[in-house]
Amino acid sequence: MTTELAIGIDIGGTGIKGAIVDLASGELVSERRKIATPEGGRPADILEASRELLGGFSEAGGDGLPLGVCFPAIVKRGRTLSAANISKEWIGLPAEELFEDALGREIHFINDADAAGYAESRYGAARGAEGLVILTTLGTGIGSAFLYDGVLVPNTELGHIELDGAEAEKRAAYSAKEREDLSWEEWGERLQRFYAHIEFIFSPDLFVVGGGVSKHHEKFLPLLELKTPIVPATHRNNAGILGAASLARREAVATA
Ligand code: BGC
Question: How many Å apart are CA 186 and CA 44, to the nearest integer?
Fold first, then answer.
């Protein structure tokens, strides 16, 4: 069997990361390249930074591979409809087309947390899980992905529900812990409010918690009292890359 490869690029509020992925194993087969998100997160700057990042994969054989790009906004029919931790100039833009023009090739374009959720369901903590899996990423914002029996329901945006008079991500994202210098216990109380509320509304079968901070899961997941099992993501910061790459390959096959 020939190895199936694709490139995933994950655009975040602080960094733009990418790698070539082996889709059978879900492993990165190139170095993971990362550059800082340009200050302000404006369209022209992010497009240019992504072009630079992608160019670095040419030598590793990246040129003809399917390419997936995931992005921290609502993505509907190729348009970015929100912008929480990037420039507001993205709102309403035909972003998929802009990336295709800037990168000189077709891409599969998707929300970052949806990409991460898809990756965890195919290669990670939610593999084989039945019923409703809710993945949340705790980073600059809070991203969410719903998967029902492995099928993604996109653009759920749980980070923007109102909690104690504020948007949930403003109080409970990892950035809030850092900004306000919260202890694990203090942050845990906010997470408890968030997850208990989501649990009551959606009755999920499994919560998966991603984002870089999930490597310290033993510091905060045990503080949570929920009826639903809650587990750390397997791929943490690489999940967006994996999911974007994997969905790009799926689309390339479907349209071939
Ligand atoms: C955005 C989401 C994104 C999440 C994680 C939120 O602020 O609204 O679209 O998935 O941050 O980056």
Answer: 39
